[in-house]
Every structure is written in C-alpha cells, then in structure tokens.
Amino acid sequence: MPIDAVIAGGGVIGLAVAWRCAERGLRVTVADPAPGAGASWTAAGMLAPVTELGYEGRELLDLNLAAARRWPSFAAELGDAAGSAVGLRECGTVAAAWDAADLAGLRDLAAFHASLGLRSEVLTGRELRTIEPALAAGLPGGLLAAGDHQVDNRSLVRALRAVVARLGVDVIPARVTRIAGTAGGTEVTLDTGDRLAAGVVVVAAGSWSGGIDGLPDPPPVRPVKGQTLRLRRPPGLLGHVVRGSVRGNPVYVVPRTDGELVVGASSEEAGFDLRPRAGAVYELLRDAQTLVPELSEAEFVEVSTGVRPGTPDNAPLLGRSATDGVLYATGHYRNGILLAPVTADAIADLITTGRTPDLVTPFDPARFQARTEARTQGGPS
Amino acid sequence: MPIDAVIAGGGVIGLAVAWRCAERGLRVTVADPAPGAGASWTAAGMLAPVTELGYEGRELLDLNLAAARRWPSFAAELGDAAGSAVGLRECGTVAAAWDAADLAGLRDLAAFHASLGLRSEVLTGRELRTIEPALAAGLPGGLLAAGDHQVDNRSLVRALRAVVARLGVDVIPARVTRIAGTAGGTEVTLDTGDRLAAGVVVVAAGSWSGGIDGLPDPPPVRPVKGQTLRLRRPPGLLGHVVRGSVRGNPVYVVPRTDGELVVGASSEEAGFDLRPRAGAVYELLRDAQTLVPELSEAEFVEVSTGVRPGTPDNAPLLGRSATDGVLYATGHYRNGILLAPVTADAIADLITTGRTPDLVTPFDPARFQARTEARTQGGPS
User: 0.90 cut: is pTM over it?
Assistant: First the structure.
C-alpha cells in the first residue's frame, strides 16, 4: 500500500502531525533515528505565552495564545486516545523579581500585558512568599501569570508514541537525508539507503531540518543548544512554575506533581554539540538555588541537552515549501511543546483540505524565500 | 569441593583479597550484590599519603606510605595477570593555596612533612602557574607532593574482576547477611537464603560491614557519603592531581591521561542515602571551576555517589575478629584504593600462614572491642 504522508522527524511536532493525519485516515510513516529523544525530551514543557512573551510581534503571540487555549482539550483527547496521561498541570507561573530594578521591569511588563489584553498580576514580596513559601527570603515581589501552565513533555512523548502505534503509523528509526519531487509524488531517501515514495512529505526535523538535501528552499533553522536539569524532592515544594532572572541570568523551575523539578535552561549557539557543559550545569544550579534555596537538598537526577530549532525571526515555518508535495512544520525554537497542537491540526488540515488555516498563514515558509530572492536581486536602494 | 575462603564484599578490597588468596591456591568465593559498584566506583583513585595526611598517628601514615610504595609493582603485576591496564599515573599532586593565610598553612604543612621525612615542596605563585598553567590567575602559591599519585579506580575494578575470573574465583551477586562459627568452619548466609560453608570468611563489605548478623564484635564502620563528578576535556589540561581549599571548602581534580577529570569529593553523614544531592554537585563545580576556570567548558559526564566506611579512629580494621575463622578487612574510610595492595597481601598472609604481618598489627580489630569492654566494666577512675 502506498504511503500517504512521510513525516521527517519524530519529536512532538512530527508525532503530533502523524497522529492528526492518521486520525484522518491517512497512511503515515515517521522517520527519526531516535523518536522523541531530541529537544522534545530535554524541554521543560512550559506552556507560557505570557511569561515567554518577546518582541516577535502580534501574530506569533496570537498563535501562542491559540495554542495555549487548545492545550486542555488536546491533552484530554490525547490521553484518552493513547490510554496514558499527558501530564498537563494548570498551575500558573510566578516570575520572581530579583531586585527593585527587576520588579520595576515586571511592572512595565504587566502594563504591556494589559495593553495586549493578557492576564498578569504584580505581587508584593509578601504576596509572593504567601503563594510560594519556598522562594528565597527578601525577594521584593513578582508577577503572577495565572494562565501560563506546563505539561510533562516526557509523558507527552510517551502518549504520542502510544497513540501513533495504536493507529498503525510506521515509525522507522532512520534519518531523512534527501527529499525530491517526482512525477508521481515525492521521494524520500533515508540514511539507511532505503527510499520511500509518498503523496506528501512533512519536514518536522527540528534543528536538522535545514540539512536535508534536495530542497531548493531549505528551512533556515539553526541549532540553539539548551540544557535542563531534572531534580527531585518530595512533592509540594512549589505550587507554580517559578522563573526569575538572577543577576541577569534567566532561570526557571518547573514542578511536576510527582516531585520532579525541571530546571532550565541554558542557551548557547554551539552547533550540534550535544555534550552537557559543566559551566551550564553550574549556572543553572546556582541560579535556581538562589531563587529556591531548598533545591540544594534535592536529588540530582539528570542533565539533558537538546538543540532548539531557531529561525531568523524566532517564529516557526508552517506550510508549503517551494517543492510540490513538501510541507514544513519546523523552526518552533522555544515553543515546540506549546505549539504542537495547533501545528498538528494546521498541517493535517492543509494535507487533507489543501487550505492553510488562517492562524498559521503568517508563518508561511515562503517569507524567507522572498527575502533571499530580494537580497539576491539586489540593485541600488 | 569445599570453599576455603568466602569474601563478603566485592569492592577493591574484597577483590584484591580474593586475587591474592586465589593466587596462593585457595578456593575463593566473593559475595556482593553489585561487585565493584560502591565506593570503589565513586572514588577518584588518589594515592596520596602526603597530601591526605591527617592527625591519625604515625602507624597509619606508615601504612599509607608502605601502600604507596607497593603500588607500582602491584599495578604492574595486576595488569599482567589481568591482561588489562590498571591506569596508575605517577603524576604527583599540587595543592594550590587559595589566599595568603592558606599559603601560610601549606608552609607549616611542608615543615611538618619535613619533620616526618616526607617529600613536599612549597611553590611560589609563579612556580605554581609554570607547572600548572590552567590554574586560576592570582593564586599565591602552593605545595608540590611529587610522590602523591593516582590510579584510575574503574580500570582497577575491571582488572581485579578480570584476574579473579581468570583464577576461577566464584563471584556471587548476593549480600552476606549472617556469619556464624560452626564446628567444622564458618557458615555464611546470603540474602538469597543460600548458605555457604567456608574455612575462613573475610568481611570486606565497606560501610555495610557493621550490618552483618551473628558477629559479637561487628566492625564499628559508619557510612560517610561522598560524591564525585566525572568531567571531560581534551587531554592535557592538567599535569598533576590538583587540590585546594576554596574559602575553606576542600576540592580536588584528578586528571586521567584520556581527558577524564574526576572532581571530588563531598563528605556528609547521611546514612545509606545514595542519591546525589544537587547542592553537593553545585559546590564541587563551583570550587573546582574557581581553581581551574577552564573546567566550565568541560563536558559534564556523570555524578557518582558512594559511602566510605568511616571508623572511630579513621583507621582500618585488618585482622582477626572475635569469631574464629572470621577476619576483617574493612573501615578503610578515604584510603581504600591506596590500601588495597597492602590489605590484600596482609589478609592472604594471615590466612595462609596464621601470622599477622607487623605492618598491620596496629589495626587489629580488637582495639575497638577492648574499648567497649573497658567502658562496659566501668568503675571509678
């Protein structure tokens, strides 16, 4: 039987796309040398459109907000379909101010949130410690983003792998090295030398998406190395995701219901060097312990390293590539977990209806192609 | 065929004793739930009678010095017999002074060394950086102990396991829970429920030695938790073992020839809790990076946790117990790797000749028994 869709990449994006396509009756194959083991496994699972707000513009904010709204039903549906819990925890996020200047910055941020219609609340030092008693004494205040939640990204990976297996998706442990349009469809070459023919190919290979041969418009993704630590304490140390900027160094602590605490995340441009760096481990522990002193007593469980797929405008590439029959679902940078539900629905819709949902049209991969052509054409300006 | 010797414990002490006994023609069985996986695996492998010198008295110093002298021939012989390298590196040790007061302390220590006939040399800041250019700028000086070396403790474990296997020693993956004298010899009970009869039993179970039932004079060992980190850089960063006391916190870095760097060691009394503690990882990284800044760029490979068998006088128990047919080779505290060669020879000699070598007579286990009896007898003083 012919394959309808080959998904190059089996992280949360690729697996979620595979799920939604298989659900719609397509025959789907996922190719990944280590499904779910990349950035999806290293991530902390924050679903934080408000506290992760940057200056990338209204369209990305709207996408992130839509994704956050989609999460509860996505998690419920996936949990039922997979037969295993996804670990969504609707706990809110507290950003702690490190000093008075930092608190002033959080007040400005709250005003900016209000101007955008986003929900956040400035907290005094006393209010901060009332809702999170484990925070260091003396912090001057903070910000509560009651709608920024978290999901256990590893439970999410397990649930997605289970649901695609139930739906008969073929997961091949190999890397896609080449994609080429042919008369009858699209041909994919794997690093095993095998070739697959498919009606459509979805490139969801994260940081590796730009290294696939045969594409005239390779996705402009670059690997942005990140490290997270897994610690463990008896459950209940923290009630919210806690984040802060300690002497200018951003750090967060994501408490799971079972006592696991994910501390993240370093950010370095170091190519595909996935080795954990001792200095990053040191800095994460230093800054996390400064915010939450009792973390020094936590069990040190694991260091994990992954590469986020960064893009020139920090926004994802969602939609048609320059090659017929090849779609991109990559470049999610820091928001791959958050954006998995909307990405999966949008790509499955595009494949089955031929129409790109309005929500994702601003993220058309052609935006980079146009820029490249403009630069290439040059001329006086 | 009857077993001549059962060794309770398969760390470097137990395995080295097993080797020397098997070499002398005895039928030997080692019982350990995880041979070589305890403190022997966590250790850094320093062979450092001079820089580890404490105030435990001349007899322990003499034992440590004899052990250090024994190491080169022990390593050569073991490497040949096992067919695998033991990883002895005769590189010397540099103790770096953190500040002027610390340097004054090292000068006093050098004078103390000289009074004992030990070899050490005070270094200026310039001399320190000449022999170890990777040390932090501005350290005021240090001390060179040219005879304090190191061995790769994990290569040592592998070599000992190989050599006992070659000699037909039976290694049973079980814990000894009870030892009892019988008319015909000694009976050992394992946690599997199995029983073994042996001519002699050697208790070499490290921190677990005191928990074996049936012994009227259980070894007074207590677990002293220690954590080490394994980092990795291209070989050549350090030429010596480097140690120091950063704001009063002792730390050392042991460079293997292959680029592995062992950083140690925390010290806590936490029972048998073997979970790595985040605060200890943080402090080791902080202090090691302070001495050797480039360690921040090293790969973070592993955290390892073990429990050293501490004793009331910090010296080992080597020799006969109060039970006929039961010997003790335990309580080596911080010096188990260093003392493995002399311990193994002494115990094998005692078993085969009935005579305790002079070198180890000060470490007769009965010294604690006598104290206990004296206290029990009480009376006016």
Answer: yes
